Amino acid sequence: MTYDAPAEAGPEAIHPEPDTKDWTWILDRPCPECGFVAGSVTADQLPELIRDNATYWEIYLAADNARERPRPAVWSSLEYAAHVRDVHRLFAERVELMLTEHEPSFANWDQDATARDSDYAAQDPEAVADELMDAADLAAATYEKVPPDAWGRRGVRSNGDVFSVETLGRYHLHDAVHHLWDVRAAAKRATVAAYDASVATYVQATSFSEQTRSVLDRFLAELETGDHVLEIGSGPGHDAKALEAGGVRVRRTDITEGFVAHLRKQGFAAACLDPLSDDLRDPVHPDVPYAAVWASATLLHVARDDFGTVLGRLAAVTRPGGTLHVSLKEGDGEEWTNRGHVEAPRLFVYWREPALRTALEEAGWEVLEVGHADGRLGDVWLDVLARRRG
């Protein structure tokens, strides 16, 4: 048996094509898709990482479109979550066998038959969320009780593959991590939906931050009067007004339809635009590059794997020598949080300066400066000013 995302079939398919790949190699080398590195995970980390992974599914399953497949032959968030729930249960059982029996043999489990027989697509998202959390906790608790001298105990899969408790745990964790990667678009949708539901509150509670003033002035110093600036993530529009007061023209864009509607009500031209996939060129003068890009407190929601792509796409529509401002939160990893003026949780991706500089340089930007500023919630912001390489 294997554990993997269903392979993508043709558009006429009703069910995903059965998965026949063997993923045991993941124990020896990094996963080129989700980035999982088995060797970096120690046995004592398994319980916490499994529980943390489960919290993401809870958020995705609360979305209105949890049942929707991105394509006919690719599972929905609901179907992936139901699969991950069953994987947690299965691995908890197998670890129990390894702890109580001598080199037990595991019965074959056909994940595709289980998905069809259990009708994953028809299950209740709320119920699956609760069941997945319980199953993850059961699996985590099972790893927690493994005695120090038992991590090397072995079990044999039906195809002859031999696992220790420790390698089985890493293999198990990769399955859950990989399927979060499979539904990574759900993180974007949930974050956008959180903002969309709180546009009125966000507009009323925010204004132009004077902490941004020095960055904005430094940005404007790189430009000439009348230069055209692409703004990514205009939100309520406070920064755009300040930029225009400085003498430049701003193309307002946001991925959240509610913010775009708000800007249009104020009399501004605004476009609903995803910087990862949509055409970033000026629709009026598509062959004329922008003089600069302003992306304040918005790319911090971009998945780490997509960040370099977004930076490269921004560079492609900016003139050589053009300017970029990006602000992100300093830190490690990522986090779902509802701190601030938005009620529902949003995904924040944190960065450290060295990795951020590398991403910018690789995408075609010369970093001029990276400032560190204290935020109102006790966090630290990285304020980047960069120049498009010629």
UniProtKB/TrEMBL annotation:
Coiled coil: none annotated. Residues 64-180 form the DinB-like domain. GO terms for molecular function: isomerase activity. PANTHER family: TRANS-ACONITATE 2-METHYLTRANSFERASE, TRANS-ACONITATE 2-METHYLTRANSFERASE-RELATED. It comes from the Bacteria. Keywords: Isomerase, Pyruvate. InterPro entries: DinB-like, DinB/YfiT-like, SAM-dependent_MTases_sf. Residues 1-20 are annotated as: Disordered. The keyword Transferase does not apply. Transmembrane segments: none annotated. This is Mycothiol maleylpyruvate isomerase-like protein.
